[in-house]
Design goal:
The complex is a heterodimer of chains A (117) and B (112).
Chain A (H helix, E strand, L loop, with lengths): L3 E4 L2 E4 L5 E7 L5 E8 L3 E10 L2 E4 L6 E3 L9 E3 L8 E8 L12 E2 L3 E5 L1
Parallel strand pairs in A: 2-11
Antiparallel strand pairs in A: 1-3, 3-8, 4-5, 4-9, 5-6, 7-8, 9-10, 9-11
Chain B lengths: L3 E3 L4 E4 L4 E7 L4 E9 L6 E7 L2 E5 L2 E6 L4 E6 L8 E9 L7 E2 L3 E6 L1
The chains are: A mainly beta (117), B mainly beta (112).
């Protein structure tokens, strides 16, 4: 049981380049989300998904795209990288709903450190 | 106004001390509360998960929620140097249960 796996762990991009951050989970979690973490700003939600084929925007979605074709995978695409997107990106997953007795806390990946120059 | 406010610290305490970490939130509809611990250059890991008001204890950790004052606390007894990390609180409402709002985190340093 690997939990949430993020790749790559580190990435340097030039302004204007595009790339995809990968996220995969093996816990059969319905809910998946992407956060960015910046000093003093805490975790800010970029996009989230409540199941395959369903995605929605979070607090800071501009410049990012997501898709959810399977329960396991939730990739994050940077369309045209900008220095303001330099950050640490975390993918998180959890069960969906409010079934009594279940632990609905997020499981986070280990993060992708992205630098845009 | 941010949904969840948290003092960034840093908070420095001697080993063995009782630590109190706190958050306030603005939305009275929030009912689900989490505390995460994040070591340097690592992802957050779930420490405590609670629903509504009251206390929940797990070993040296106690989570407390006071919905009347919109106040969340995490107490750490007999603190250890290995507890040195950033602690994040998070909360969500029943109408959008899985969407948690995070505090910015409090950095804790436990000195040997």
């Amino acid at each position: 049981n690997a939990g949430v796996t993020q790749t790559p762990k580190f990435q340097v991009l030039k302004t204007g380049q595009s790339m995809t951050l990968q996220c995969a989970q093996d816990m059969n979690h319905e809910y998946m989300s992407w956060y960015r973490q910046d000093p003093g700003m805490g975790l800010r939600l970029i996009h989230y998904s409540v199941g395959a084929g369903i995605t929605d925007q979070g607090e800071v979605p501009n410049g990012y795209n997501v898709s959810r074709s399977t329960t396991e995978d939730f990739p994050l695409r940077l369309l045209s990288a900008a220095p303001s997107q330099t950050s640490v990106y975390f993918c998180a997953s959890s069960y969906l709903g409010q079934e009594r007795g279940r632990n609905y806390g997020y499981t986070f990946g280990s993060g992708t450190r992205l630098t845009v120059v | 106004q941010k949904e969840v406010e948290q003092d960034p610290g840093p908070l420095s305490v001697p080993e063995g001390a009782i630590v109190s970490l706190n958050c306030t939130y603005s939305n009275s509809a929030f009912q689900y509360f989490m505390w995460y611990r994040q070591y340097s250059r690592k992802g957050p890991e779930l420490l405590m998960y609670t629903y509504s008001s009251g206390n929940k204890e797990d070993g040296r950790f106690t989570a407390q929620v006071d919905k009347s004052s919109k106040y969340i606390s995490l107490f750490i007894r007999d603190s250890q140097p290995s507890d040195s990390a950033t602690y994040l609180c998070a909360t969500s409402a029943a109408y959008n249960f899985n969407k948690f709002y995070f505090g910015s985190g409090t950095k804790l340093n436990v000195k040997p």
